[in-house]
Design a protein that fits this description.
Elements: H1 3-8, H2 12-40, E1 53-58, H3 66-79, E2 84-88, E3 100-101, H4 109-112, H5 114-122, E4 128-130, H6 134-144, E5 149-153, E6 165-169, E7 197-199, E8 204-207, E9 211-214, E10 220-221, E11 228-233, H7 238-247, E12 251-257, E13 278-282, H8 283-289, E14 300-304, E15 307-310, H9 312-325
Parallel strand pairs: 1-5, 1-6, 2-4, 2-5, 6-7, 11-12, 11-13, 13-14
Antiparallel strand pairs: 3-4, 8-15, 9-10, 9-14
Helix pairs in contact: 5-8
Length: 327
């Protein structure tokens, strides 16, 4: 049973598991509050970088859309004339520990993590620092990009680093407010008090219509209404992706939903798919799939999701103010 099934399932097994795990969640929440208090009371000191740093975070595990918002934020900062460097964790990549400045050019998802590979694919000219140690990442930015704005994709719970501003994505309609493992929360909801901007709130995230390109060529395409396809994805919220495809008029006749960050390197992964059907994947999945030796045996459509923070003019003013206030 997937973690999401335990957190949100309505069946007897899911409800029983949540009940059994709830005391562990209480202990987890108490431990987190104790850890947080050590910084609030000054018993531990967070590192404050000498560069302006903006962190895009959330309170929950799983997909909440941090990376699309990070990409939008990078582009918004560039429109204001800022130079930007991005930090991401490199989760499940061989370079996950510590932090390092990723080389130029396409990145291997196996080496650098799927989110780093995706960021490089979509922001090819943006310097990227990869690794879970956000303090070390900030120090690399200070040393190598002293005039840049550091944007952190995730990192809200990395209390060792004090960013200049925190933009936190939070779904107020979430059905399960428990902390891990009985629920999705990495920390109690009171953590929102550390945020400078909660989305949605004064501003909100608007999802633009899905765009599709051919995986093999990158050529844009427009699926026909009622087009029959297969779906393969390994993201945090696959149900949202499936719903978006159905809302676009696409008929899904075969699907395989794998856990978030699955490497998609299983030898038999593609054998069950009908070769007559296009396989629709997310951009995050495509950066892992495109290096498979058997990928040419199927037609892949890559669904690309862009977002915007609205109202755009007011958010640009908020960003200008954040940059002017410095570190």
């Amino acid at each position: 049973m997937r973690a999401q099934d335990v957190w949100y399932g309505s069946g007897l097994a899911a409800r029983a598991l949540r009940a059994l795990l709830t005391p562990v969640s209480w202990l987890y929440a108490a431990g987190w509050k104790s850890y947080e208090a050590m910084y609030a009371l000054g018993l531990k000191r967070a590192y404050r970088p000498s560069v302006v740093s903006l962190c895009v975070g959330n309170l929950t595990a799983g997909g909440s859309g941090k990376t699309p918002v990070t990409i939008h934020l990078v582009n918004a900062l560039r429109r204001l004339g800022a130079t930007v460097v991005v930090s991401c964790s490199g989760y499940r990549g061989a370079s996950e520990s510590g932090a390092s400045h990723a080389p130029e050019g396409p990145l291997s998802a196996g080496q650098w993590g799927d989110e780093a590979a995706l960021l490089r694919h979509l922001l090819p000219d943006t310097p990227l620092i990869v690794g879970r140690d956000r303090v070390q990442a900030a120090q690399i930015a200070e040393r190598e990009f002293p005039d840049a704005v550091l944007v952190l994709d995730d990192g809200f719970q990395h209390l060792r680093l004090q960013a200049s501003k925190y933009l936190v994505l939070h779904d107020p309609a979430g059905k399960n407010s428990r902390c891990l493992p009985a629920g999705p929360f990495r920390e109690p909801r009171s953590g929102l008090n550390r945020a400078d901007l909660v989305l949605p709130g004064e501003f909100w995230v608007s999802e633009e219509p899905l765009r599709f390109v051919m995986g093999s060529t990158g050529t844009p395409l427009t699926p026909k209404s009622g087009q029959k396809v297969a779906v393969l994805c390994a993201i945090g919220s696959p149900e949202r992706f499936v719903s978006a495809l159905e809302a676009a008029g696409i008929e899904i006749v075969q699907k395989r939903l794998l856990p978030d960050h699955d490497p998609l390197d299983g030898g038999n992964l593609l054998r069950s798919f009908d070769p007559g059907l296009a396989i629709v994947v997310t951009a995050k999945d495509w950066v892992k799939l495109k290096s498979r030796p058997d990928v040419q045996q199927h037609q892949f459509w890559v669904a690309q999701q862009s977002v915007a923070i609205e109202p755009a003019g007011s958010f640009a003013e908020w960003l200008r103010s954040a940059l002017a206030s410095g570190i």
